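Let's sit down with a protein and look at its sequence and fold side by side. Go ahead whenever you are ready, and we will take it from there.
>
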Amino acid sequence: MAPAAEATRRHRLKALRGSTAMSPSGRFLLTYALLLALATAAIGLWVGQQIETGVLNRTAAVTALYVNSLVAPEVQSLATANQLAPPDAAALGHTLSGTDLGKRLVGFRIWSRDGRVLYSPIPGLTGQRFPLNGVRARSFMGTVTVDISDLSDPENVYERQHYNRLLEMYVPILRNRSGEVLAVAEFYLLPDEIDAEVGDARLRSGALVVLAAVGSFVLVWAMVTRASRTIAAQQARLRNQVAELSGLLSQVAELNARIRQAGSQEVAIGAEERRRISADLHDGPGQALALALLQFDDLRALAAASSGPGTTENQKLASAHGAISDALVELRQIAAGLRLPELERMSMSEVIERAVGDHQRRSGTAVALELRALSAEAPLALKIGAFRALQETLSNATRHGQGIDVTVRAWVTDGQLHLEVSDGGPGFELSERPLNGGLGIPGMQERTALVGGTFEIESTPGRGTTVRLSWPLTNVPTVADLVADEGSAG
């Protein structure tokens, strides 16, 4: 596949995935809908079960009253006998066959406490004994029970041949006046009416539950949609603000870069200007003073020849000659101090070693030097700043720190050049000696800040002084950059 076609296919797939991706509010609504559906189904099942139980209990209560009113009078003989007398059994059969209840019954039995069937219309079932347990046993304690039976009990042989399920009821038959349970009547009804009533009730309750669930979903959907729109609007505003802030940060970074570039250019231009001034002093006033000294020598020789070496005029000439000689020496020292060595071709290690060596030669003070992991390449502005900083700090360590335990340390970590100059001199209290009182330290601070560096001084009376400087090694314009900038400006 051609690269263009493959790129087009990937773009279409990405667009398709983006178009089909669901928003957080959509995922929430889908999850809520699923959970609401499950909760609605669970509530519907629970409500349906409760309705079925309520209908069965109501049917059982009504039927119990009806059975006691019709059947109880016919079985009162059980209070004194263990079985129904034939007249009572015949009367019971007549009562059941001649009433609405009897017409609805599909099965009927009367149980004794020992589990015997005392009466049943089914031939051969009367007199048989079955286990007395479960709901049948609870009925002898006066409890009316009702349930949908699957006809799995041993006594349900006849019913199983004609039906799959029936409504089964156990109703205790009470003795007149005393309320004693004489026997338990068991009868079966077709569940059709119960099923119809329960189904109708479940349908109505299910409709209410579904309606409530739909109303809840619509309400939540409206709230989530409104909140989603609010969040989307806030996100849009936030994106705009972030874009504006990013633009401002870019502008600030660009301005900082320009400031550092201008600072580096100023350092380089300042060094060049000092070199020019040094040359001008050496070649201009310096040469004139040197020529004046030669002429004074001739004048002193003529004065000595004409009036003698000890005359007043000769002494004045000698005094003027000494003053001019001292001025020439001082002028040459100033010119030498303004001129920097050729730092551009040196490494940072060589620059630091040169500054320390020059100071030791001029002052005669021993300086301990520790160089660790220095970068071989460094911008010229950094070299000039480090050289000037070492000149000033070593001079202060000799004059104010008395040249005691002077140490220079330099290293590079995390793209930063670190320079530390310390001495073991008397130190001073920073709050009592302002750092901007002279020209050295303010100039050092200014040169350090121009190329994006930091300056820190620490001193304690009796514990010496330490000066720490740091410069970034990156994003500092080189000489080529400065020349290019000058060319583009021109």
Q: What stands out?
A: The CA atoms of residues 459 and 465 lie 4 Å apart. The longest helix spans residues 192-283. The chain has 13 helices and ten strands. The radius of gyration is 58 Å.
